[in-house]
From TrEMBL:
One of its GO terms (biological process) is carotene catabolic process. The lineage of its organism: Bacteria, Pseudomonadati, Pseudomonadota, Betaproteobacteria, Burkholderiales. Its cofactor is Fe(2+). This is Carotenoid cleavage dioxygenase. Keywords: Dioxygenase, Iron, Metal-binding, Oxidoreductase.
Length: 502
């Protein structure tokens, strides 16, 4: 196959700008490609037992913004590499949300972004009340189809995992959930169930639900919180889900007036609600822990009487206000707000004792990392390895990966080198794998030195060796974050051979 550019004709009206999140590693792209390894350069050798699809979502701005641009405002674009039998096919496609199609038809921006929602020319959906449904943040596969979302701001957009064609909002259950959905669903590898939550700004402030392996909504219950909250993730174990109520939320008085000012309350505890997988709100057991905020969990599992929850703790969320100034200063403030070195996060473990009601917690590391990922086959189960991203100081860019062996305490790291920036990785166990780390780690890297992008395949047992294979993409793609791995035998749905995860 030669490199094909799809005749999608995406129209961009972006004007030259010095905005840091529209230039350099963040420069958006407008071509949509299909290309395989007959035409793409491969450095090294793609393992023949790497079988499945690595997919990353990316905010990719198309039109001249109506106001100040925030890097989460761009339309969703998926980048995917489909591995099979030692070969790979790359595709990238926009998530064709209603907002995307309306702005393509209008040939301009119709929605403003996170920073100046009052400049929107029409009503929008979303956590901020006026955002375009860009579906550019999260990506996961369930029941044989992709789900792309923007947390609490998006329909659950379904896409074909191979072609990346947008199929539309989920037709089975989206209409039954009026308060929307969060990002970061969790799929049980054994049952194929997908657990989710939402967090509306009105009573009861949270719902929790389960969608079965056949994509039927089988459980949806209210979970009453003390007020509007801003959770980002949930955890699952074999029998429970863990819901988050952290003291980092919008000022309730300002919220009554429609204003969203995030406030951290260090005097309040964080609360974590352990709910039986199919339990109702009255069965939630709340555990208190020290004040913090959490974006992303690594994994959760049951250990005797205890629920173990590992993730990246933000012990003291510091807010760099944005939105009140014009010109370059605002860009610097957006960067400062996103710079993890101003707002450190590191691996942390909470234990919730179901017998005593006690919480214990401990730091697992003191280095700044985030976007922890584990093998799909170990989600909700005792596990050993987490692969996290390392940050470039002063930037919202990922300079490398850190592998945690949570049994031995050993760590490995792999850094991409100067001018090279990665994304959230994924763990791809090889065909016939027996051990948790028997397989590969995949990640996209944007190389500013060579003006190109690559998909790297690393040995999950020894990431420090560097890539086993580097697939050079047809065009430099902008950096992005959340990704997923779809095992080849999950493409038809959540009906895997038990041998796949046993
Ligand atoms: Fe996230």
């Amino acid at each position: 196959m030669t490199i094909q550019t799809l005749p999608s004709g995406v129209m961009s009206t972006l004007q030259p700008t010095d905005h840091p999140f529209l230039n350099g590693p963040f420069r958006p792209m407008f071509n949509e490609y299909i290309a395989d390894t007959d035409s793409l350069r491969v450095i090294g050798e793609i393992p023949r037992d790497l079988d499945g699809i690595f997919i990353r979502n990316t905010h990719n701005q198309i039109h001249q913004p109506l106001g100040m641009f925030h890097p989460f405002d761009g339309d969703g674009m998926l980048h995917a590499v489909h591995f099979h039998d030692g070969r790979a096919t790359y595709r990238n496609r926009f998530v064709q949300t209603t907002g995307f199609l309306a702005e393509q038809a209008a040939r301009r921006s119709l929605w403003a972004g996170l920073l100046e929602p009052e400049k929107a020319s029409r009503r929008g959906s979303g956590a901020m009340g006026a955002m375009k449904d860009n579906a550019g943040t999260d990506i996961i596969c369930h029941a044989g189809l992709l789900l792309a979302t923007m947390s609490q701001g998006s329909e659950p957009w379904r896409l074909d995992p191979i072609t990346l064609d947008t199929l539309g909002p989920d037709t089975n259950w989206a209409r039954k959930i009026p308060d929307g959905i969060s990002s970061h669903y969790k799929v049980d590898p054994e049952t194929g169930e997908m657990m989710f939550f939402n967090y509306p700004e009105h009573w009861p402030y949270m719902h929790y639900g389960v969608i079965d392996r056949n994509n039927r909504l089988v459980h949806y219950v209210p979970v009453e919180l003390p007020g509007a909250r801003w959770p980002h993730d949930l955890g699952i174990t074999r029998n429970y889900s863990i819901l988050h109520d952290t003291p980092h939320f919008f000022d309730p008085e300002l919220l009554k007036r429609g204003q969203h000012k995030m406030t951290f309350h260090p005097e309040m505890p964080a609360r974590f609600g352990v709910i039986p997988r199919h339990g109702d709100g009255s069965q939630v057991r709340w555990f208190e822990a020290k004040a913090c905020h959490i974006l992303h969990l690594a994994n959760c599992y049951e250990d005797g009487d205890e629920i173990v929850m590992d993730g990246c703790i933000m012990p003291e969320p510091k807010l760099h206000p944005v939105g009140a100034a014009d010109g370059k200063d605002i860009y610097a403030r957006i960067k400062a707000r996103l710079d993890k070195h101003n707002n450190p996060t590191m691996m942390h473990r909470w234990r919730f004792n179901l017998r005593t009601g006690a919480t214990t917690e401990q730091y697992l590391d003191d280095e700044i990392t985030e976007f922890p990922v584990v093998s799909n086959d170990y989600v909700g189960r005792p596990y050993r390895y987490s692969y996290n991203v390392l940050y470039q100081p002063g930037e919202w860019l990922f300079r490398g990966l850190k592998r945690f062996d949570l049994h031995s305490g050993a760590v490995q790291r792999y850094e991409y080198g100067p001018g090279r920036y990665g994304s959230e990785p994924q763990v791809a166990r090889r065909l016939g794998a027996r051990d948790e780390d028997d397989g590969y780690v995949t990640v996209f890297v944007t190389d500013m030195n060579q003006d190109r992008s690559e998909c790297l395949v690393l040995d999950a047992r020894d990431i420090s060796r560097g890539p086993l294979a580097t697939i050079v993409l047809p065009e430099r793609i902008p950096v992005g974050t959340h990704a997923c791995w779809v095992e080849g035998d999950r493409i038809p749905g959540e009906h895997r051979d038990p041998a796949a995860w046993a």
